[in-house]
Amino acid sequence: IVIHLFLNILEDLNIIVTNMLRFRNIALTGKRAVRRNNFPLLSSEVDCIRKLSSAAVGEANDDSIDPNFNADDELPDYLKPEILDESGEWRGCTKRFQAPIRVSSRGADILNNPLFNKGRAFKLGERDRLRFRGLLPPRRMNLAQQEKRFLNVFRAETSPIRKHIMIEDLHDRNETLYHRILIDHMEEMAPIVYTPTVGQACKEFAKQYRRPRGMYFCAEDRGHMAAMTYNWPNEDVHVIVVTDGSRILGLGDLGANGMGIPIGKLSLYCAAGGIAPHRVLPVVLDCGTDNEELLKDPNYIGMPVRRLHGWEYYQLVEEFMDAVRFRWPNVLVQFEDFSSDKAQILLNKYRDKVLTFNDDIQGTGATTLAGVLGALRAKGEDVTSLGKQRFLIAGAGSAGIGVAQVLMQAMIEQGCTEEESRETFFIVDHNG
Question: What's the pLDDT at 38?
Fold first, then answer.
């Protein structure tokens, strides 16, 4: 009897999982019988689930199912959707089990750490456990209220660069709220956090510099980089975005001021890609700069020396790559905004040895190829007709050349020769 009942439950569970979007308030635990707090289902609960599953697949007739049947009314109390508090410190928050986050910091150190700080949203129990009760105003404000308050001020500002400064100030003091806002308002925030506003933010990076974020490596650090990586406080880094500042967007050589690019890109990776903020690391390789304006600027944050080239440059990059691989063997290293004369060389050198890619070459190229294939379909042409097209690429930077390389590889895969593929491209510089 038990085996027969169990098989019937499994059959019903299979139906429920198929319709879980409709009945998502039913608790399931994989291939086992539905359980809650390790107690087996009661017979009345089994009848309820069978009733639900029959209604879901339309197997029930008018006599077996009440037309006024309500799933929430039929479910036991502990299987019903959670009703969130509408007032008090738990307003809008769930009390369901969540794995606790272990932190070694206590007291004011929590409030000064943007990774852990969440403003006035800390509940009384948290304030006691983390030992900063009395260090915050007593009236609590949950994240939804903080988000609304910030957006009211943010939207009253009309200047994009001022908006960028506002959102990055929030980034430096409360990453929980920062990423909540990015997730909830990605279309509004992405142009402020990254392109196009980040270009102006990089130009003003030294002037607006307030708080350190990320790591900087320069020629004076040769021989110390492996030890320097242990200065980074987070043990589990999954993604590093590194730039040498030699070709920031379309602005050219901005040197160490290019740190705004890795910071902005990783913010989007966290918000849109779901990477935990403590697992990312923005990096600048300060190889100097050939920008005369920066060399004369007393507020410039990088080394005011001419940019390294040749053997010295590649030795600096090599030590950096060895250092980060030693500290974090499985880390992904993304090369970002390197000048076209070095980007392809570095990619070719490390792509088969390290988990790495160049966004300007590979990311832009793959996205453009997808767009071109979609355009061919929209024109009613076969996607295998790439070799019959003609491509004009405006700009011979790493992104433009990367696009050409990806398109050429696609043509070769479609049966064109390398020579035939090359003849389809016309590349011009920014002056035409």
Answer: 43
pLDDT tens for each residue of 128-150: 999 999 999 999 898 989 999 99
Helix (H) or strand (E) holding 225: helix 225-228
* pLDDT score at 33: 39
Tokens of 259: 């740190």
Helices (H), 60-135: 71-74, 108-111, 124-129
Give the single-character DSSP code of 23: S
353 is catalytic: no
Residues 345 and 351: their CA atoms lie apart, in Å, by: 10
* Active-site option among 51, 118, 163, 265: 265
Q: How far apart are CA 138 and CA 143, in angstroms?
A: 16
Of the candidates 118, 178, 194, 350, the residue annotated as catalytic is 194
Give the type of residue at 87: S
Q: Name which of 45-59, 115-129, 253-267, 347-361 the model is least confident about.
A: 45-59
With a CB cutoff of 8 Å and minimum separation 6, the contacts of 103 are: 110, 116, 130
Distance CA 356, CA 349 (A): 10
Cβ atoms within 10 Å of 185's Cβ, excluding its own: 16
Alpha helices in 281-353 (DSSP H): 292-295, 310-327, 340-350
The DSSP letter of residue 195 is T
Buried b / exposed e across 31-53, counting CB within 10 Å, b at 16+? Answer: eebbeeeeeebeeebbebbbbbb
Question: Residue 171 in contact with residue 178, Cβ under 8 Å?
Answer: yes
Instruction: Identify whether 265 is a catalytic site residue.
Output: yes
Residue 10: Cβ within 10 Å count? 12
